[in-house]
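Session log. Operator J.P. requested a structure for one protein chain; no other inputs attached. Running the standard single-chain path with token output.
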Amino acid sequence: MLALSTFSTISAQQASVGPVDSFNPKAYRIGERLTYDVSFSQFISAAYIELQVAARGTFFGRDAIQLRAHAETTGVVNVALLALNNDYTSYVDPGSGLPFRAQEVVRQSGRASDVTSDYNQGAASTQSSGSGEFVGTYDLLSAIYRVRAMSLTAGASYLLSVRHENQEYQAEIKVLGHELIKTKMGSFNAIVVRLNAKNSELDDNRTQIYFSDDDLHIPVLVRIKHSAGEIRAELAASDVRTAPAPRPSPSPVSPTPTVTIRATSPDAGPTRSDLPFKVGEKLNYLVYLPGVNQPVGTALYEVKARGRYFDHEGFLLSARLQTTPAIGRLFTANDQVTSYVDPVSLLPFRTEMVLVEGNRRANRICSVDQDRGSAVENGARIEIPVGTHDLLSLVYAVRTFELSPAKRNAISILVDKRPVTLFITSQRRETIDLGGQKLPAILLTLTTDDPVSDKYQFRAWVSDDFRRLPLRFTAMTELGLVRADLAITPVTPQ
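Structure written below.
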């Protein structure tokens, strides 16, 4: 799915009708970064793509512009359909847009590959062959910027040649006309382009790309009519970060890019030194009901990655909760929650929920502006206190609190589209039995500012050490006391 949307956004070369020698350098604004939300069928948030003009300088002995991109699936699509996490880098000639070196780092479903390609072509390769088709080949990333640099004259057809994974694709871009479209970034007067790529999954005229009708030709929307459902890549953010001027040097050097598209290292960017968890941490829980010996559900909490998401540095947290066959005949659930949180405050700036409970299906996306104290969930605006957590970020934030008895902490959380104040009171130290192990723990009571503050009798036990691992949760429900126990826990203190 993401390959299709990426391919449609990332295909370009030259024209067979109209001014084939057109080249607009404004398409290569140093520091420009474009972020796209990708939806697929009923999945509102299936992936995201970031494109960036990272730097201009001397690379591999040539004056060049460095282009970067990142593409990654998210939420339930990442878990159940396609786990994709790719990075692309391309070095192009500033006068022609032709690449001379390209790198693809592909991480898909647990497999990884790093491929570097050298293109033996210079600026002269962009000249027309005389038949309306330009000589020269583009990689996926450099192609999109080259098509932006074209005139995109109404009625023109452009012949494309793009190499991907050692295969070359011939495609045609047909400029259909103009249209006013609406996106998350606002309304745009757009140039509508149809893409048809021979010998590929796009060989059926089902892909349309909408470029801004100005000198920049920013791709603001991509639509692909796929047999499994429509794929949409929609512009979600656009900004230009000015790079500092390079210092004079007596000889050419290869500068380090001033801005990177994504930091995948857990230590990238500012962070806290006192966090009790690291990227890669997984916490597995077994859920029990009274009178049922077998677990009726499981829960998996993960700190999946540290990087740049939706124009923010942050941690990617996820939780998956599902029922087991023990109660499968009575009720089934399979919920996926994803939270993107600030690496210092752990406050969320985006929450995604895919809820499957019995016959109920719900997709929710909540974007949070912590600076202004507001949130937007599925189009509805919600006023919240500055510093409000979601239910997933709450689990990790509490682990950073001072929890020595009888400390009481208060925190704002967003529940069912309204802010609620949660009070976390450290009651006492206890030793609990977990999987046959005796573990020192701190008992916490969780109450709210609702009229019935302890309605569900939420209790939590966290490990009495630096990690503050949530060892056990309990809550009173209509079925009785529900208990969730950590399935794997360290034997020795850490």
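Operator note: The longest strand covers residues 43-59.
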